[in-house]
């Protein structure tokens, strides 16, 4: 114990020095260490272990027995390529666990042998691993690398002797090998995939000091289009989970990883835990209650965002297998915030001390060591910058929302500019909520917004600037064709983000959201489809149309997810179709067979694809492209029944009873 105290004193001096260095050099852009473990967290663990405080001591006693917590751990990799096949993924995950756990042991003991082991593992994989492959690549890149990032963050900011050149190589590795696999998240899958991608993107943002990556992940957490968005995963105020009808291990896996996102945000001064009126807490209470054996659980039929997973009752598969992820949320919601969470508390009591987060690298695990011992005195009152700013433009207003800072007493100041670089002018102050509607905008005009937090310590820096257009550009309009629930199109000056219901075009009448503009005899529209719509049955088209009635004459070049016989791998292809007369039958004029890479991988629209429609009086020509340079003609149509004054635009349908979100950019009108 004397030796441990000696190491503690030495390590504390090093930690303070390193923290001061990072604050000065980085200008507090990010707080370091600041992924799962903050400086305060590391000190709390170390102090509790020095004094053998329970339950942390019991958690530590379990932790030090793990093979992955030993500086004698024998590395199993590295490899140039990894995938989710068990033999290969296990090698990476095991090494990532060891890197993380040795980094923790270094901070607790001050013994450089642990730091050196962690550095050895991080360096080896960073210079060797070149690709992550396979249909489960997103999940592979979202799990083990999260552990590796936590190890790297701790080692980097605790003066462990990690060389600057090696740090630079590791940053490059995470941004060029890991990030490209997960940057578009996983809206084609169950929500736990999205959650894995989000938490690792956030971690990359913090470790690499890349605000764009970090902010994008925050915005996806609150306003993403996949199942991993908080409101798409905790699908009711009663706490039902998107995967509750699948099985209980995956339900816990997904919500556990969403909680890890919250821990990262909290360490950066952001209260993601409290987002949407503590919705995450409700989800945790739901899964804990059911897995503790309670049957009085409400469940509603649920169709997910992809359209692939439709559940009618709660699943008892894997019921009762409590995963080691409850200590974290118990420490935050119950101990720190003083909220009532009886089922989370029971789960903690049942499995304390929490063990390893296996299989693989599914969870950090060891929550009793990592999170128990938190006290209400740990509340944050530093002046941190708001984040996750969302700006949605309508004709007469722009609606803003953002993630609150960790200071409950902070207020917010909204600033706006006509230019991204400013100057920014204050439009309102003293906002206590985390949303605001700016009604002083003009339709079709581009704006840029930022938000500042204000507390007793002063003003924060401005939030990451968000561009938005109030409504659509001049001449553009939007409408719902057919009898469907309303959709919407948002424009930020570069990209259209389109939310739509409907089944698309059909002989019984069309049903889709149409974002369009008036045209005469000659017109061309080109746009690029961005990766990964939410509904895997999305119908994405470029259309010339007589009018807004449901059975109007049209010509449409449409991207369809054809039926391949495998729901997970649709056959994406394009067709040129026409309805020559009002209420007439639809005729197929041409087709481009199944898309391939780089637009499609494993049946998923994971790359860009371009559509072009050209009108020259009565002749309409449709073309497609993988790069916007090399075009392939699909077919032509003769359209005598479409009048000189018509509509041309973007048609989006979900193809399911839920909505879809599709994003297009590189929009060219001639």
TrEMBL record:
CDD domains: FN3. Residues 1-22 form the signal peptide. Keywords: Lyase, Signal. GO terms for molecular function: lyase activity. It holds the Pfam family Alginate_lyase. GO terms for cellular component: periplasmic space. It comes from the Bacteria. Residues 91-292 form the Alginate lyase domain. Gene3D superfamilies: 2.60.120.200, Chondroitin AC/alginate lyase (1.50.10.100), Immunoglobulins (2.60.40.10). This is Alginate lyase. It comes from Hydrobacter penzbergensis.
